[in-house]
Amino acid sequence: MDLKLLFPFLILHVIHDVHSSSNQWTVTVPEKISVLQGSCVVIPCLYNYPMPKSKKPLAMWSGFWLKGKKVVSTNVPKFKVNKLYNKRSQFLGNLAARNCSMLLDSVGKNDVGPFHFRIEMRQYKSFSYSTNPVTIEVTSDPQPPVLSVVMNKKVTASCSVSHSCPVIPPRFSWSHPGNILRHSKKLNTWKWETVSTLTFTPKFSDFNKPLNCTVHYRGGKKVTSSTIIKT
Ligand SMILES: *[C@@H]1O[C@H](CO)[C@@H](O)[C@H](O)[C@H]1NC(C)=O
Ligand SMILES: *[C@@H]1O[C@H](CO)[C@@H](O)[C@H](O)[C@H]1NC(C)=O
Predict the structure, then answer these.
(1) The Immunoglobulin domain covers which part of the protein (predicted)?
(2) CA–CA gap between residue 58 and residue 78 (Å, rounded)
(3) Domain 3-139 of CATH type 2.60.40.10
(4) Which atom of ligand 2 is nearest to the CA of 226?
């Protein structure tokens, strides 16, 4: 087929897709998130609604995260959220941009959910996305960090963990002094990786000795990995 003929077809197809996805009550959230007890989680959330027939622009969005009938978090100022979640939750999303993300801190054994999102649009409609709940798997034991060492003239050791709390990422401590750098990156919509890198020039007495990396998670849990520095 001639490319000139194919091209308008492709454009129409793309427009049709965008249109249909924005014309329904849909929400994009993970079904299940794994969170370390005591730590925090940012629940990613994007929502959609059918286009209103009226051309009048929408201006007021009230978003609620619910557990059953308990309000866990909202963007409505001064709204009294359930006391179990008061001061632990924060509504992060920009509802005008269809973002309904929420932060929950100090996650406890009872925070498994299921949680769901509800939107209320003053001049339009309201909808509870209760068929797309989010559950949290609360783990009590943190995974030990992955520790690796590269030896050149210097020792470069990397200590890496994944977690759900980008706002308060884990801290690291090393059993040997040196130059320490930390950086985080996103692994998926809710999971992050934070890596601490230690660099130092080894002395003879450092060889065949353990090098330890301890991870201190939000909430106070910590776990150590150990390796031996070899020549
Ligand atoms: C939604 O908002 C959260 C919190 O501000 C932000 O981290 C995230 O990147 C936003 N998602 C999108 C798709 O814009
Ligand atoms: C490093 O870890 C090893 C094994 O867990 C432990 O025996 C040792 O005391 C630790 N050393 C330091 C300096 O923390």
Answers:
(1) 30-139, 144-230
(2) 22
(3) yes
(4) 2
